[in-house]
Amino acid sequence: MHAEIYTDGVDEITIGGSIVRVDLFSLSPTERDANNAPQKVLCQRLIFSVESFANSVEVMQKALQGLIDAGAVRRNQPAASADSARNIVSVDRGPSVKNSQRSPNVSTNFS
């Protein structure tokens, strides 16, 4: 059996020469920020060559397109800000719940 890793998301991608480092994070069950939301904690780092990272991105783009085609996620309208690259898809999980009603343990990746 192979070890499985759960992550709440990608925190940072660093490129140095021909190496790409992808830092994965999990939301801490104990550490909280000033708004009482769980803090991001580094849980794993993926290290790729530039070529293998590019191939991985291509595989993920195909998987994302499959999720879009299946209706599991939908593309958001592009925003005019520099942050627009971070808001390319949203997960369709039924009716929205306002942030004030959300549990503080819910991932910030989903609205």
Molecular structure report:
The protein has 111 residues and is α+β, with helices and mostly antiparallel strands. The chain has one helix and five strands, in the order E-E-E-H-E-E. It has one domain. The chain has one helix spanning 50-69; strands at residues 9-16, 19-32, 38-49, 73-75, 89-91. The chain has a three-stranded antiparallel beta sheet.
Comma- or semicolon-separated keywords:
two-stranded antiparallel ribbon, alpha+beta, about 110 residues, about 20% helix
Low-confidence stretches: 94-107
Biggest beta sheet attributes = 3 strands, antiparallel
Helix content: 10-25%
Count up the helices: 1
Write the H/E string, N to C.
Answer: EEEHEE
For the CA atoms, what is the radius of gyration?
16 Å
* Physical arrangement of strands within the biggest beta sheet: 1-2-3
Write down the overall geometry: globular
Secondary-structure-based class equals: alpha+beta
Which band does the percent of strand residues land in?
Answer: 35-45%
Number of domains: 1
Q: What is the typical, i.e. mean, pLDDT?
A: 81
**Quaternary organisation:** single chain
What's the total number of strands? 5
- For the terminal residues, how far apart are their CA atoms? 34 Å
Protein topology:
Blueprint: E1 9-16, E2 19-32, E3 38-49, H1 50-69, E4 73-75, E5 89-91
Antiparallel strand pairs: 1-2, 2-3, 4-5
